[in-house]
Amino acid sequence: MGSTLYWYYVPYREDYNLALKELREKEFEAGRYNPAILFPEFPPKAKTASPGKQHASIFDALDEAAEEGTRSILDLDTVSTVDDYGVARLLSDQDLQLYFNTNKPTRRDIDNSYNFFESIERGKGHCIIVYKNNQPNELYFVGYSFD
Fold this sequence. Notes:
Layout: E1 5-11, H1 16-30, H2 58-65, E2 78-80, E3 87-90, H3 93-100, H4 107-111, E4 125-132, E5 135-144
Parallel strand pairs: 2-3, 3-4
Antiparallel strand pairs: 1-5, 4-5
C-alpha cells in the first residue's frame, strides 16, 4: 500500500503548536482518522463523515493504526523547523520561494502548486503560513501517512 496525503487549513495562530494541537483534537473528536474511517476524506468539509472518536485517546488511535498511520493530522504531533517523523516542518523562506515564488504564499498559491508535495516524506509534514492582503491569515498543515 502507499502513503496517503492529508491537508487542512485552520485560522492563523501565532502559536503553531497550539493550532496543531487544537486541529488534532478536533479531528480526533470527529473520528476522522484511520482506523475509525479507513480513508478519511480531504479536505474535511461540513458534510464529511464524522462518526465520533472511536478510541480513548489519540495515543490509542495511533497505536491501533500502527505502521499505516492514521492517514490524518493525528500523525503529526509538533511544529518545528527540524525535519523529522511526526513533525510539521515550517518551510524556510528559501523553500517558500522555491515552491511558491514568494515568501508570503496565499491560499491560491498553495492550491495551485503541487510540487512541494514531493518534498514530504512518509510520516512527515509541513506547516505553511498562509497570507491574505500581505498578513498571516491561516495555517496550512499537510503531510503523508506512514503507509
